[in-house]
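Hi Prof. W.,

I finally got the DNA repair protein RecO prediction working! I wasn't sure whether to trim anything, so I left the full sequence exactly as given:
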Amino acid sequence: MPTYRDRAVVLRTYKLGEADRIISMLSRDHGKIRAVARGVRRTSSKFGGRLDPFNHVDLQLVVGRSLDVVSQVETITAYSRPLRLDYQLFTAAEVMVETADRLVPVEKEPDPVQYRLLAGGLRTLGHGTPDGRRPAETIMDSYLLRALSAAGYAPDLQDCVVCGRPGPHAGFSPSLGGVVCADCQPPATPHPRPETLAYLQALLVGDWPAVRDVPMVVIREAAGLVSAYVTWHLERGLRSLPLLEES
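And this is what came out:
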């Protein structure tokens, strides 16, 4: 049977039979993959915890008729270990892998940008940025904005999304896709702090130094806007997002 090798981030696992699992992964070269890991639920399994969600792995797969089969796995980074020790980090990681799963719906269709964004986001979530750790909301919201932008849902945080009038503008409309001027804003449009819009712009481009000393009130306001934006543009809410909001 033909085989292939790839690097991947584990998204989800599902029980299969008495000892197997189906592993859903986002890979570097083959997009989303669903494969069977034989005997992985046995204590004697050679794979151990390598195929836990969030882990970054190098693996070899055998091409199957309906599902491929995992034949070898090596851990690149076990992100599941640090993330499972902190509830906020864990729920933020859940939001990120669920978003990646939704944004890459087609199996075996390469999407290297989404793969790099997810792997980088989990690395930052688990180990922090070079100049220190950021709140889980900051890392997650940066990932969400960048992942949606890569999928074609980039918010406009500069000019009015309706008429194109140059900003800055006070209103932000998740349903319209970004900031809106006073003449174009729908009823009940949120008017976030100017600092919040600047913070969102920094998250969108990954400017970590610019968000180093942002107060929590700005982080929380931005998180609400990002949550509304993601929910609208993915057409249905993320199941894991309310868990983070409750923490």
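The first strand starts at residue 3 and ends at 16. Does that look reasonable to you?

Thanks,
D.
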